[in-house]
Design brief:
Structural class: mainly alpha
Shape: globular
Strand content: under 5%
Distance between the termini: 25 Å
Number of strands: 0
Number of domains: 1
């Protein structure tokens, strides 16, 4: 799976701009593209601001391309926060992925995350049962995983993912 938006700084800038304006073609808004956007915000802003920008950005993008954000479609809070937490975990393992990064360094980090998780779109299934992920509650607000048990034997929380 290739991600042309990661080919160069210019290509990524154009991709991010199109996402933020809501003009990115739907065919390009893949799982890898979601990861790239989430990683960009997490390496560019403090975590709470990054999460807010991802939430707002996905909802805005959906509206621009005709995808309604309803109780049954569009933006999914639990999956969004799940993937952002996965990205945060990956960033903590990458030397130099925190702190001030140049654009080129950020792009390298984004490539790393997309390479590692771009083909794992269904990773959330290891953490969530179908009924939880398909619920309106999980689409509307964070629901902790119901499948993965931590080493201590307790059900995992957002921090454990």
């Amino acid at each position: 799976m290739t991600y042309d938006c990661l080919a160069s700084e210019q290509a990524f800038g154009e991709f991010l701009d199109a996402f933020e304006r809501g003009t990115l073609p739907k065919t390009i808004w893949t799982h890898g593209a979601h990861l790239a956007v989430g990683t960009w915000y997490l390496v560019t802003f403090p975590e709470d601001i990054a999460i807010g920008r991802v939430r707002t950005g996905i909802r805005h993008y959906n509206e621009c391309v005709g995808t309604q954000n309803t109780a049954d479609s569009g933006y999914h809070e639990t999956l969004t926060l799940f993937w952002l937490r996965i990205i945060v975990g990956q960033l903590s393992e990458l030397p130099g992925a925190s702190g001030r990064l140049t654009l080129q360094e950020k792009l390298m980090v984004i490539r790393n995350v997309v390479e590692k998780f771009g083909g794992q779109r269904d990773l959330f299934r290891q953490y969530y049962s179908f009924d939880v992920v398909a619920s309106r509650e999980a689409r509307a607000r964070w629901v902790p995983p119901d499948r993965i048990v931590s080493e201590a034997g307790n059900k995992s929380t957002l921090r454990d993912i």
